[in-house]
Design a protein that fits this description.
The structure holds 2 protein chains of 2 kinds. Chain A is α/β, with parallel strands linked by helices. In chain A, the strands form 3 sheets. A 6-stranded mixed β-sheet of chain A has the order 6-7-8-3-9-10, with helices on both faces. The longest helix of chain A is centred in the middle third of the chain and has 16 residues. Chain A is elongated, with a radius of gyration of 24 Å. The two termini of chain A are 36 Å apart. The model of chain A has no long low-confidence stretch (mean pLDDT 88). Chain B is of the alpha/beta class. Chain B is built from 16 helices and 5 strands. In chain B, strands 2-1-3-4-5 form a 5-stranded mixed β-sheet, with helices on both faces. In chain B, helix 9 runs antiparallel to helix 11 and helix 12 runs antiparallel to helix 15. The relative contact order of chain B is 0.11. About 12% of the residues of chain B have low confidence. Classes of the chains: A alpha/beta, B alpha/beta. At the A-B interface, loops of A face helix 10 of B.
């Protein structure tokens, strides 16, 4: 059974639809990536999943139960890691965790034990009694996640939890997420970083203008592309006219894009295409000064589906 | 240079694009200046300045006391009440000493001019032997500015009232000393009377002491030193007398055991004003939590919005209440303002003021969109309320219109309660109205804040 299922969710701000008929589901132990540019509707979708916003249409099922009438069912089993550091700089790491643990009904020795466990889990036990204001950005991110784990939620919503984090802390967070998933926690993970989504998420949903425009595993999404690889060829001393002649002539089958002294060719499989390209170039192959192969990524999928880059606002 | 100008222009552009900053920088000072001008304008004698109010107790019932009353009534800037408010029988009784003392102790009209029995007789038989006629000024010494104005007015009026008698008697003394013919003395007295040398004398010639029969015993002595007369009863006189041929003895009705009335007012005023600043800052912290997503996170934990608001309300109230007591204790230690005897009243009223102030802070947080807005708007609102409400200057000396406006301010009611406790020694029943107003403000403002802020607690 899925932990959470969204069915045809709709939400509008006035006349503008922020979420328009979105459906997806997440199972136990699954990390589900939610990709999309700013304004795609991810935050509004998370607001509905967290039962802070009432859907204008559709429904949300948690463990098979409809949350429309009883949103409070979800809250005790839901953890949310906001994009902002939503903690108190004036309190220590331990005090912050104890405060949020208390809000989830933990108290006494149980609260102390859980706070200690979470501090160990996020690797901040040694710094637990320092004020948060003195933490590094990465440490704050980790404690920000820790504050959502105290009550051992079955569903965790993570909103870009690695923004502005150093590589070491980022890896720590990746390991933390993988560990949570292994324990059966369902995780919905929004991010701008395609490599993060590719690394962490079993399935990925791509949102744009409030709609879920594609969904599937990384391999399934890449299948949406007409080509899988890009080959960039730099040609020594080539003028634009010469590049245009090549693009319109012998290399026309590879739909080349003309750049500054280079051509970018689109192919299904770079390894199998190189010999054919070299042959097509003929004597000009001797002038190749640079050659790079770029694997198709989620960025290319998004570009292919929407006509713009994921990082454009 | 180009870089400097570029940075300068960019900074100016940023400033212009922040309407709140522009308003705070340009409009707020104008508003504050205008309000302060109206508030303190009353002190410069402008036409709409609130008059000094005093009761008039005539124990003498003589022509002279009548002249004194009439002269006082004719003065601009002074409002004299000769009768008590109409009672149940529809009678307006004249003020008596006891009734006037009770009125002052109750915090009503703060001063009373008492003309004791024998005033007229002494005035008519002025002998320059130190036995000068006496006027008493019963006063609430917390009204220091009004007291000073009143003393000046009494000096002026007593001089005008007694001047003719003094001059007439002086002529007798001078005639005796110089061996002048009584007819010459009489002629000179007549001339002085006809020409009103010492000012108007409503009683006319009848009020003149007959130089021939006048009791000029002890003639040749100078006019009495009124200070000695004024302090003749040190038990109930703290203000001392005023030098003149009529003694003006100031009796401090309320300040006998109080070290300095100004500090009572200052402690109450500063306490109220800074409590508002504190709760405004606390209110700003709500917005900070909203901006950084902490509130959203708390809401997700199944905490109800009302629980969050009440938790914050309780914390802000405790901070404001702690501040109240820190300031009260400081006032007690530094300025010897008595907080021990009215402790229960202070505890309850202080709590009500802190509750109302906390609600005010919550409303600010609920109507503002950012911490910066809270800061700028609260500064404006609190300064205006403090000046109109009497935290900076007693309302009694403000123009009448500003006094009425003060009734619509938080500070006005808080000050009324605190002053009632500190200065007039009232218990809670004596300040029931300020207590009710504070409790009402606390409830109504919290309800408004809860309603407005709950909508902001949404995602």
């Amino acid at each position: 059974m899925q932990i959470i299922s969204a069915e045809n969710l709709v939400y509008s701000y006035g006349p503008q639809r922020a979420v328009d008929g979105v459906s997806f589901s997440v199972g136990p132990g699954e990390v589900y990536g939610l990709l999309g540019p700013n304004g795609a509707g991810k935050t509004t979708l998370i607001g509905m999943l967290a039962s802070l916003l009432s859907p204008g249409g559709g429904r949300i099922l948690f463990n098979g139960e409809d949350l429309t009438a009883r949103p409070q069912l979800l809250r005790p089993q839901l953890g949310v890691v906001p994009q902002e550091i939503s903690l108190y700089d004036e309190l220590t790491g331990r005090e912050n965790l104890a405060f949020f643990g208390g809000l989830y009904g933990l108290s006494g020795s149980k609260l102390c034990t859980r706070v200690g466990e979470v501090l160990e889990r996020v690797g901040l036990a040694k710094d637990a009694d320092r004020r948060l204001g003195g933490y590094s950005g990465g440490m704050k991110r980790r404690i920000n996640i820790g504050a959502s784990l105290l009550h051992q939620p079955r569903l965790l919503l993570m909103d870009e939890p690695t923004v502005g984090v150093d590589p070491q802390s980022r890896n720590y967070i990746y390991e933390l997420i993988a560990g949570l998933a292994q324990q059966g926690t369902a995780i919905i993970y929004t991010t701008h970083y395609m490599e993060e989504a590719a690394r962490l998420c079993r399935r990925i949903g791509i949102m744009d203008h409030g709609r879920m425009i594609a969904e599937g595993t990384l391999a399934e999404l890449l299948e949406l592309l007409p080509v899988r690889d890009l080959i960039r060829i730099g040609i020594s001393g080539a003028e634009r006219a010469e590049l245009e002649a090549l693009a319109g002539g012998s290399l026309a089958a590879y739909a080349p894009l003309i750049g500054d002294g280079e051509l970018t060719l689109q192919v299904d499989n770079a390894g199998r295409s190189l010999a054919a390209i070299s042959a097509a170039l003929g004597p000009e192959a001797a002038r190749i000064s640079d050659l790079a192969v770029e694997r198709a990524s989620l960025e290319n999928v998004f570009l292919h589906l929407t006509g713009r880059s994921l990082r454009e606002d | 240079m180009r870089r400097i100008l570029a940075i300068c222009f960019a900074s100016l552009r940023i400033w212009i694009r922040q309407p709140v900053a522009v308003v705070v920088s340009l409009l707020v000072p104008v508003v504050v200046m205008t309000v302060f001008g109206f508030v303190f304008g009353g002190m410069s004698g402008s036409s709409d300045a609130s008059p000094v109010r005093a009761m008039f107790v005539d124990e003498d019932g003589s022509e002279a006391s009548g002249r004194l009353r009439d002269a006082l009534q004719e003065l601009d800037g002074l409002k004299i009440y000769t009768s008590q408010p109409v009672d149940d029988d529809g009678e307006a009784r004249p003020w008596t000493r006891e009734a006037a003392l009770a009125e002052i102790r109750d915090g009503g009209t703060g001063m009373a001019v008492v003309v004791p029995q024998g005033f007229g007789q002494r005035l008519d038989n002025l002998d320059f032997s130190g036995n000068a006629p006496q006027i008493e000024l019963l006063a609430d010494s917390s009204l220091q500015i009004e007291n000073a104005i009143m003393r000046g007015m009494l000096q002026q009026v007593s001089f005008m009232t007694a001047g003719s008698s003094m001059a007439s008697q002086g002529m007798v003394v001078m005639g005796d000393e110089l061996g002048m013919d009584p007819s010459v003395v009489s002629m000179m007295q007549g001339w002085m009377q006809d020409n009103a040398v010492w000012g108007p004398q409503p009683g006319g010639a009848d009020q003149q002491t007959d130089p021939a029969t006048g009791s000029a015993a002890g003639s040749g002595s100078a006019n009495a030193d009124a200070d000695s007369g004024g302090n003749s009863d040190p038990d109930n006189s703290s203000g001392g007398g005023i030098t003149g041929f009529v003694d003006i003895r100031v009796v401090d009705v309320l300040g006998e055991e109080k070290d300095n009335p100004v500090f009572s007012h200052q402690v109450a005023g500063v306490l109220t004003m800074f409590m508002l600043f504190t709760v405004a800052a606390s209110g700003g912290s709500l917005l900070r939590e909203r901006q950084n997503g902490t509130i959203r996170r708390i809401m997700i934990s199944a905490t109800r919005p009302v629980d969050y608001l009440l938790g914050k309300y309780l914390a802000f109230f405790l901070i404001a209440y702690l501040q109240t007591w820190v300031m009260l204790i400081a006032g007690w230690l530094i300025f010897r303002v008595d907080i021990i005897s009215p402790l229960p009243s202070l505890a309850v009223f202080g709590a009500l003021v802190a509750l109302a102030a906390t609600s005010f802070g919550m409303v600010l947080a609920s109507v503002c969109r950012s911490v910066e807005q809270v800061s700028s708007i609260s500064t404006l609102v609190i300064l205006v309320m403090s000046s109109i409400g009497g935290s900076m200057m007693p309302r009694s000396i403000m123009p009448a219109a500003m006094q009425r406006l003060g009734d619509f301010t938080f500070n006005g009611w808080a000050m009324e309660g605190f002053t009632g406790i500190f200065w007039y020694g009232k218990d809670l029943s004596g300040i029931a109205l300020p207590c009710l107003v504070m409790a009402g403000l606390a409830l109504v403002l919290f309800a408004i804040a809860a309603r407005l802020f709950s909508s902001k607690l949404a995602y």
